[in-house]
Write a structure and sequence with these properties.
Elements (H helix, E strand, L loop, with lengths): L2 E3 L4 E3 L2 H12 L4 E2 L19 E2 L9 E4 L8 E6 L2 E7 L4 H7 L1 H12 L3 E6 L8 E13 L2 E6 L1 E4 L2 E4 L2 H14 L11 H10 L2 H10 L15 E5 L14 E5 H8 L3 E4 L4 E4 L28 H11 L2
Parallel strand pairs: 5-8
Antiparallel strand pairs: 1-2, 3-9, 4-5, 6-7, 7-10, 8-9, 9-10, 11-12, 13-14, 15-16
Length: 314
């Protein structure tokens, strides 16, 4: 089976799996009068019933589909200069369904490994049954019931890559600065607002990368592209960007921290993990000592970490 570089890891996936992703890349932007499914490949390119397509025996999702029936309130993708960010609702509701349903876990597996997914959108402007191939995207985050999928992703001899990384950062800034309705239309839009706050402050992130020597404070993961600037107390403007109010965290650890599913025991500088994660791969991090800056003067604030732990009830 091919071993591909996803930017987060070198992952073994089958040629049949790769063929589906290449089909989505080849047909990026095309509109079909009916939903594409069986296109002559070993795997179908979309699910027979559900929005998340996870064939039996695969750990990863192959594609996600926004149907005409709109079972969930998926939000339209933000698109700028060919780069897009799409919020795709998980199957079911809440944290229990997120970790309890196999198709959601398949999207989380994509997120953790960097294996991308194909994205198919209903295109009612064409006809009731028409669908548009948005392309291939990385599952780059999760917020409030929505997976954040960013693209377009391409594939070459070096593996998968985001085709326009600079434009993606510009897109995030654009959402923050120009779309004044982002955080106020409804609660769902906080997904994009969260991404904006996290990635729209490159100087704060650079400071944390330097302070933590490019390693996640919780996992010591050192792939720089996957590391994010996390605020301990919520972001309330530039004054929140102090090193004592920050942690350098891998994207998934950042999500768990924001969801109060992990916290820090400041008496021992170790990680606390919620019982809700006891049956997941995150359980192994319970009790792990934090990776902290060599300079103790810029360690995260004990008071702020204790505040966060109290909120998490851990």
């Amino acid at each position: 089976m091919p071993i591909v570089d996803t930017g987060l890891a070198r992952v073994e996936i089958s040629q049949d799996h790769l063929d589906v992703l290449l089909w989505f890349e080849d047909h990026e932007g095309e509109v079909f009068d009916s939903r594409p499914r069986d296109v002559g490949l070993a795997y179908s390119v979309s699910a027979p019933q559900f929005g998340i397509w996870k064939p039996s025996g695969l750990d990863y999702a192959l594609s996600v589909m926004q149907s005409h029936r709109r079972v969930y309130a998926d939000l339209p993708p933000y698109v700028v200069d060919g780069t897009w960010v799409y919020q795709y609702h998980q199957e079911g509701e809440g944290i229990v369904d997120r970790f309890g349903k196999a198709r959601n876990r398949a999207l989380d597996a994509c997120r953790e490994s960097g294996v991308p997914v194909g994205v198919l959108l209903a295109e009612p402007s064409r006809s009731r049954g028409a669908y548009k191939v948005l392309g291939v995207g990385f599952v780059t985050g999760y917020r409030d019931g929505y997976y954040i999928i960013s693209g377009p992703v391409g594939f070459d001899a070096g593996g998968f890559f985001l085709k326009k990384p600079r434009e993606r950062l510009e897109l995030i800034s654009w959402v923050a600065e120009q779309r004044t309705d982002v955080a106020s239309i409804d609660e769902r839009q906080r997904v994009i607002a969260s991404v904006v706050r996290r990635q729209g402050q490159p100087y704060f992130r650079r400071q944390l990368l330097r302070a933590y020597e490019g390693k996640c404070a919780f996992s010591e993961y050192d792939a720089e592209d996957a590391l994010e600037a996390a605020h301990i107390e919520p972001y309330r403007g530039p004054t929140s960007n102090s090193l004592q109010n920050g942690l350098l965290l891998r994207a998934d650890m950042h999500d768990l921290f924001d969801l109060f599913l992990v916290a820090v025991d400041t008496s021992a500088q170790t990680l606390l993990v919620s019982e809700e994660l006891a049956s997941t791969a995150y359980a192994k991090y319970a009790g792990k000592r934090l990776h902290l800056p060599k300079d103790k003067s810029i360690w995260p604030s004990v008071d702020r970490l204790d505040w966060h732990r109290e909120r998490a009830r851990l």
